[in-house]
Prior knowledge:
Rossmann fold, alpha/beta, globular, 6 helices, 221 residues, 10 strands, two-stranded parallel ribbon
Amino acid sequence: MPRTIAISGASGKTGYRVAEEVLQAGDQPRLLLQEHSLVPEQLQGCDQHRLRLGDAAALDAALQGVDALVIATGARPSIDLTTPLRVDAWGVEQQVRSCERVGVQRVVLVSSLCAGRWLHPLNLFGLILVWKRLGEQALERSRLEWTVIRPGGLSEREEQLEQEGIRYSGADQQDSASIPRRLVARCCLEALNTPASIGQIIEITSSCDLEPIAMAQALAR
């Protein structure tokens, strides 16, 4: 039976790819979007819920009846340096609390390599890695079945991904290298299908020099 999987940040460069992978897997994506967000044409027919940040009642309604949530929200570069705090920390915590209220047990959060580090160039943009770690911690403290995916530098490349292997590691094991957003999206879906990923922070980067292996196989090592 097809699952209903909600994706917050579904208009973003990673989020819309997660939604496409959900469709490809035969499940039903529910797109959680800001009021004026645009989605690709291929996702126009999907179930869409448009929300304002901080509207708890609307968020609860949007999550009713879903089987899992993928949190793919992320602060975009802005002159407002409070945006990472509001999106990556408070925004994630609001989604976690909503899941607890409405009974959504399974959550995958897309975070970032080096989350929690203070001495990092990305923190020049409103302490973004600090706030991402606070978002992760809100999920870790919850009663939910959670997985945190920490990708490296994100690329838009879509070519020759089938031959590209992913380097999986636990928390704070990697600090460089990159990964295409499409592979991040696939990892989110793979995490939902891999019970061993529950309660894990999984860092991911990729390389054509690595042999492709399943997430379950990597975690078993």
